Amino acid sequence: MKNPFSTFRFSDYALWFASLTAVCLSCFLGAGVLHCAASLIGVTALIFVAKGHVLGQILTVAFSAFYGYISYLFRYYGEMITYLGMTTPVAVAAVVSWIRHPSEENAAEVQINRLRGREYALIVAAGIAVGAAFYFILRAFGTANLFFSVISVVTSFIAVWLTVRRSEYYAIAYACNDVVLVVLWTLAAAVSAENWCMVVCFAAFLVNDLYGFVLWLRRKKRQSAH
After folding, report:
1. Within 86-169, where are the H helices?
2. With a threshold of 0.85, does the pTM exceed it?
3. How many separate domains does the chain show?
4. Is the pLDDT of residue 210 over 70?
């Protein structure tokens, strides 16, 4: 693996440090060590994912482990199942997929895939089906804030599929998921102040994912020219 910072620009460092600073400041609101660690790993993972570097997926595995346990503590069973049962194995699969498909112009970046409209339709249909099934599963477990938990499962499912398939629209799906998670953890923060760290974390995720989408669009255009 080459130096993961070799392609970083000023804007990349600026967003990364701004995200780390926001998370660190939010930790003073009473967040636990797990909340802070998960948030710091998460925002670091996203900046590398935005750069198309496989290290981002490796860090996503670590984030998923922390986040799954935090979700369990607050009875967000949908988040726990999604991250431990879906995001973690998919991130591992993405590591393999991204390593096997490096960009021709820069081996440190993944080659972006071109999906057909039929596959996008299949992804959305599968996401809705998964959401319908999880509604009954999560209701049986007594999941807190059930509606938003189900929406989170659907958007996460679509996002991880697009990530493995190396589509730039993974970032849009994750951005939608970030909005849902900001709502979920704001509701949790109203119960326990330590959860404000997760609100800030996913607000930072939203900015990073939108930034990632812009970078992937530029990268796709550049790769298409070769």
Report:
1. 88-100, 117-140, 146-164
2. yes
3. 1
4. yes
